[in-house]
Automatic annotation (TrEMBL):
PANTHER family: PROLINE-RICH ANTIGEN HOMOLOG-RELATED. The lineage of its organism: Bacteria, Pseudomonadati, Pseudomonadota, Gammaproteobacteria, Vibrionales. It comes from Photobacterium indicum. Its main location: membrane. InterPro entries: Pra-immunoreactive, RDD. This is RDD family protein.
Length: 316
């Protein structure tokens, strides 16, 4: 007999706690794989996320199904499980599909998108899946207090419940929550329209051209180029502020040599030769980054090299 006075639907913090335990377990697996296959993960770049996704899919897909009584190791530790409305554990196929809906936005988030994709119609499905999916999942996790179902639960009719409590009648999700989710997905489709308009600005086009040139270099696996300014406010009595303008290059490199100042200077030279506005900036910052990201574990090493634009002119 289940515990009396306790809700059947699992609370927010217990569910988050179980997920945290599962993330630690998968992170440990990723850490060990990284020790053994670091160079391979660096070589495959963004495709490494597919490895982490596959491992997580098998883990959550199998464990959250009838095979493991709807419980991952984290859920077992906190006495919660995944079931349907009838309090039955779900099939392995439904469990795999459920986790896929949950994982895709997180797997794609932060992925390096090429300039061509950024300026093409591919941005619409990317934005829909990443921003729409991500914000919808988080919003429902936090705000849907009646059924505690997030996006993947609503789609497949599942609930995360306290395994020690008998089945109880469940309320209905507040309809405005569904309206918010629809708005989030609509906004995610509209967002690329704004970014594509920004890309047509001449200075932004020049930045993209510079980024494309740097990405063509053999030592670089991926690079991003941005322009901006930072403001430093003095704490002294005169309260003076100083604004520093910059061009920032973050270059992911294929060799473990983030201290290579010659390479950083070479990238800085590309900036001043291809982006005319850079000569008017205060500094050119080049951050060399080496490492990998397989989704369940990542390891990065970075070092920033700073140059004055005038020092890069005529460098050979």
């Amino acid at each position: 007999m289940g515990k009396v006075g306790k809700k059947w639907i699992s609370g927010f913090w217990r569910r988050i706690g179980a997920l945290f335990i599962d993330v630690l377990i998968l992170g440990a697996v990723g850490f060990v794989l990284g020790l053994l296959l670091e160079s391979t993960f660096v070589d495959i770049g963004e495709w490494g996320r597919l490895i982490g996704f596959s491992i997580s899919l098998v883990y959550f897909g199998v464990m959250n199904s009838v095979v493991s009584n709807g419980q991952t190791l984290g859920k077992k530790a906190l006495n919660i499980k995944v079931v349907n409305l009838s309090n039955d554990t779900i099939s392995i196929s439904k469990s795999f599909a459920r986790y896929t809906v949950f994982a895709i936005p997180f797997t794609l988030n932060g992925i390096h998108i090429t300039n061509e994709a950024l300026l093409s119609y591919l941005m619409y499905p990317f934005s829909f899946l990443i921003f729409g999916g991500l914000f919808a999942i988080i919003y429902l996790y936090v705000c849907n207090r009646v059924t505690r179902q997030s996006l993947h639960d609503l789609i497949f009719g599942t609930y995360v419940v306290n395994s020690e409590v008998d089945h109880q009648t469940v309320g209905v999700i507040w309809k405005p929550h569904l309206l918010v989710v629809v708005i989030l997905f609509i906004a995610s489709v509209i967002l690329p329209i704004y970014t594509s308009q920004q890309a047509k600005v001449e200075s932004f086009e020049d930045l993209i051209s510079t980024q494309k040139t740097i990405n063509s270099l053999s030592a670089v696996t991926y690079a991003s180029v941005t322009s901006g300014s930072s403001i430093f406010a003095s704490t002294s009595e005169d309260s003076q502020t100083k604004t520093t303008t910059y061009v920032n290059v973050q270059a992911f490199i294929s060799e473990d040599n983030v201290a290579d100042e010659a390479l950083a200077r070479n990238l800085g030279e590309v900036v001043v030769n291809t982006y005319s506005e850079s000569i008017n900036k205060d500094v050119i910052k080049v951050t060399l980054t080496y490492g990998y990201d397989i989704g369940i574990w990542s390891q990065w090493f970075s070092q920033t090299h700073t140059f004055a634009p005038t020092d890069l002119l005529g460098f050979e």
